[in-house]
Fold:
Amino acid sequence: MTIPAFTYDAIPGRVVFGAGSRRSLADEARALDARRVLVVASGYEDELAADVTGVLGDLVVGRFSDVVQHVPVVKADAAVEMTRELGADTIVTIGGGSATGFGKAIALQVDVRQIALPTTYAGSEMTTIYGLSDGGHKRTGKDPRVKPDVVVYDPELTLTLPPRIAGPSGMNALAHCVEALYGPGANPVISAIALDGMRALNRSLPTVCASPDDLGARTDALYGAYLAGVALATGGTALHHKTCHVLGGMFDLNHGDMNAVVLGHAVAYNAPAIPDLMARMGESFGVDADEVPGALFELARSIDAPTSLRDIGMPADGIDEAARRVVDEAAANVRPPELDGIRAMLRAAFAGDRPS
Ligand SMILES: NC(=O)c1ccc[n+]([C@@H]2O[C@H](COP(=O)([O-])OP(=O)(O)OC[C@H]3O[C@@H](n4cnc5c(N)ncnc54)[C@H](O)[C@@H]3O)[C@@H](O)[C@H]2O)c1
Structure:
């Protein structure tokens, strides 16, 4: 392998990783000079929030619990107002990408420190990317202020994540690793991180979904998700994510489910343009290069994640228009998208065919 010339702006931040690491939260908060902490966690994460709030004790001045997906602007504004009213100087988020997203929305408008405790495999906590939705439209942007200062990865917090959410969320993380290999910001350092993330997710997700109490597998999966977040933050995304973005926007399909279905097909489409990377992905998966798309499909099937767009609610008559939009949106993809090929890719994903 020849190392190409590259530039790399590494994204700073502190990570505390390990089972039980949430118990170091008060020390982490004090090290950031936190005096007044606002906890952000949805109603669903009540028990986790109480656990963590107990660790922080008197530092906590309030809790924002109106956390929903895609950070609607109205709710983000309410979180900002609460932060200002309580005079909070530090935000502690507990939850998946949605809770992390609210912390980011606050940090975009108020000068606060942030500590994130992720409980899914979304990986948002590692990126400078934020998203806000308004009237059915989602806008994303990049701003270094939104990246949490400290991330506490405690796999014990993920033990309650049910297989139905853990599987697709893990496939989403896997997609972050895969696309970071050939995304617009790809570089050899990020590739090394992404490939190790792929290995960790591939070996752990089947056990996470079959034996949800297995802390070893949960630890491995969260490690993979952490690497996937790092990979996404710099490597960026390509055809797979653009396709999910188009399908999500047109048909309101579940994000994790779409990831599980589309990934193998998007990799199969890109394969002719990236033979060396296919070989390296194959090494990570323990299969030949041309078997990688099929291995991704088998992984999704083995964890009971969806494998067909039809099964997750896409209408058959939407394929042509979706293909046109993917061609427009994914113009910068490593293999330039052409209409017939993308239409065939979507048809195969719709039918639930095994990609090859
Ligand atoms: N900005 C970024 O870099 C970035 C990266 C990835 C994802 N995202 C965003 O994150 C959001 C999706 O994140 P997500 O997939 O984590 O979804 P989520 O945060 O909405 O969580 C999914 C569901 O899992 C539940 N849950 C979370 N942790 C749990 C646990 N430990 N036990 C039991 N239930 C638990 C939640 O209550 C929720 O119902 C999307 O809005 C996506 O756009 C942003």
